[in-house]
Predict the 3D structure of the following.
Amino acid sequence: MTKAQLAVNAIQEKYGTFDPSKMQVQRWQYYDNVRLPAAGTNRLTFFTNPIGATDPVSTLGKTLEETNVRRSGELDEAFVIMAVKTEISILPITRQPSGVQTTLSGGAGTLATSDAVVQALTPIHALLRDLYYRGVLSVSFGQKQYIQIEQPFQMCPPGYGPTIRSISSNGAGLFFPLSNYVRPSNDPRDVYQMTPPIMVEKGQTFSSTVDFYNANTPTITTINGAAVAVNVGLTFDGYVLRPIQ
Amino acid sequence: MPSINDLGLSKPTVARLQSQFGTLDLNRLQVQRKQFYSYVTYPLAGAAQLNFFGQAVGNNGSTLEDTNIPVQGSFGTSHFLIKGVEIKYKLPSYNVTPYIGTDYTTLTSEMLGGLFTAGIFEFSVNAKTYIQVNKPFMQLPPADGRVSFYAAGGPDANTAAEPNVDMNARSENRYLCDPEIFILSQQNFSCSINFPSGSIPVRAASIITSGNPLRVGVVLDGYEFRPVQ
C-alpha cells in the first residue's frame, strides 16, 4: 500500500462514516425496466439509463420503480448474482396513455366500459405471448460474456405474481369479448439460478441486452389510438456486499 | 441488599434490585416466533407513499386489527430478528354481487392492472436501506394460505362467473431475508411503500369505496427476543 492509502485508512478508521475492513452481506436485487418500443425493436438494452435518467422510448425520467442503479452500466456495490429474472409487464391502467384509459364505445369486439382492465388489455396479452418465445439475453462483464440465454422471458421467469383462478367469463352480450392473460411462472423455484454465482466488483462495467435476431419485437397494439405501454425488466437477485457503518 | 457504598453505582444497584424484586431477568432472553404487522388505509385517489408502523397500537384509535407494534417505528423492549416480509390487504366486505360482467367490479382489475402491480418497498434502519423491492405486492406476497373463492355460472345471460385473482398464497413463496435482519430494542426503523412514478388511483371502484376501504398491511415475520420473567 502507498503511504497515501495507509494515511487514508488511518483517518477513515478514526473519523470515517464506515469501516471498509468489515463487510456486510445482504440479500438484494438490482433491476432495470425499459419501455418496449411500440413499433418494435431488434434490441433491448438494460442498465444503461440509471435512476433519474430519461428512458429514450417513454421519454419519462426513470424512478426507483423502474431501476435502482445510479450509474450507467455499473452496480452501486459489490454484488453476487445468484439468479436472473426477466419480466414483461403492462403498466397499470392508470399509468397508460389517456387513449387506453378512455371509455370505449361498446359494440362488437369492444367494451362498454374502460374500467374492465383485463378485457381491455386482451389484445396486448395475446400479442405478448409471442414475445415469450423470442430473444437471446446476453450479459458481458468487460469484454467477456458470462450469460447467454435463449428465450429468456420463459427461461428466467420473475418467480412472483398473482394466483389466477379465473380472469373473466364467457357470457354473451356485455361479456364479449373473451379475455386473455399471459404471464410466466410465479413459482420462485422456476427462477434461473446462476451456478456458480457471478461475483461482480463495485465499479465493474457490464452490458446486458436482449437481442431479437430473426425479427423485431411485435408492433404494440393500440387502443383508442394509443399504444399500450409495456415495460420489459431484467433483475439480478443475489447478495450485496457493503461496508459496515 | 445494596449497601450504602453502592449508591454511587446506579447500574449494579439496579441490577441487584432487579434480580431480587424485578419482574424480569435481563440476563436471560426468551425467543419465540412473532409477527409484527401494520395496516393503513389505501386512499381512493392513490398516494405517493404509504408509511407503516408509524402508529403504535392504541394511538389514534389503532386497534390490534390495525397493528401490534408497541412503539412507533420500534419494537419497544424486545429485540426482533426479521426472517421474512409479507404484504397483505383486507376489505371489510368482499361481497361483489351482482357481478355485472366486467372485471373492475372485483379486485381482479387491481391485481392484474392496478395498484397491486406497482410500487417500491423500502425498509430502513437508521437511514440505511436493508430491503428494497419493486412491485412489492407481488414480490412480497402474503404467503399465508389465504382463502380461495370459487364461482361458476350466472343466474341469467347478463351475469357470469366472477373473476378471481389474488396475491400468492403459498408459504414457500414467502420473501425471505437472507441473512436475517436483527433489530435491537428501541432501535428505530422505517417501512414504506412508495409510488415515485405516480400514484395509482383505485380502479376497482365498485368494491373499494370510502365505506368499504382497502387496508394494506406489512407483516414482519421472525423471532422476538424478550427477557425471561
User: Anything to note?
Assistant: Residues 23-228 of chain B form one domain. The two ends of chain B are 21 Å apart (CA to CA). The mean pLDDT of chain B is 85. Chain B touches chain A through 62 residues (CB under 8 Å).
